[in-house]
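Per reviewer request, we include the raw input and output of the structure prediction for the construct analysed in the revised manuscript.
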Amino acid sequence: MSAGWNTIESDAGVFTYLVENLGVKDVQFEEMIALDAEYLRQQSPVYGVIFLFKYPTGEKRTDVPEDGSFDSEAAENLFFAAQTIQNACGTQALLSVLLNKDGPIEIGSQLRDFRDFTGAFPSELRGEALSNSELIREVHNSFARSSPFIDETQRTATEDDDVYHFIAYTSINDKLYELDGLQPAPISHGDCTFEEFPDKVIPVLQRRIERYPSHEIRFNLLAMVQDPRIRAREIGDQDRLYREQQKRNAWQWENALRRHNFVGFVSEVLKGVVRSKLKEGPDAYDQWIEDSKSKTKARMEEKSKKGAAVDELDA
């Protein structure tokens, strides 16, 4: 991996263990499969949401946001940092919620020290401090997919590039704020208590999605909630407790796999298979290839009959 900031996935298991490794206690992320206030409310308490979307690279900055209004004064009373480096927006978005929720959330001594240290900084300097935090960068990078093919070069994205961006929404001081490090200030979406957050944030998200073409579906929404195991223990719901623990175990396994580069392993397996086929005779290898092609074609035709897309056949 590079010495900078690597790309991480918008994944509930990644974000849950990322904040845990930063010292945060009793927080979990849940992927929202429906943009519905009642569904979000069922996850209560909800501290905020992290929204991933395709960033319009050709869009120019304006003095007025397309929805809501800039609240420059709020930046003095809450944690808001400008994004100053690529690939850090996922971690920056979740920190935008966490560092404004010290009290409802036990954020731990290291993040609390970071927040206190940067409290008097302007947003640009806060962003620089975040980007230069060795602790935060190392934890962030520990959840990036391992790959032997790291592109260390940087270039300005064009309108033809697919660029994705994370932002946060949360209720602070009874206001609904959109916290986006690429914007000059927090964006206020009006009055919003902690309890009203699910009802107030969903229409804002819907309006944002409606700005995209109807065929654009590449969005992801993660809710930052209290660890559901706490409530399950309180009410003695052993079934819920078991399901949540199984989910955690699966996330740990997936996160462990992300840290490994399997290219060498796959290469050795393929070489071993080829050697074994060559030992069977001069025609065994060619026959194995043809049989594999036939089986793949048959599977794709079967999927086509069932109405499944076959575009990946040419991939």
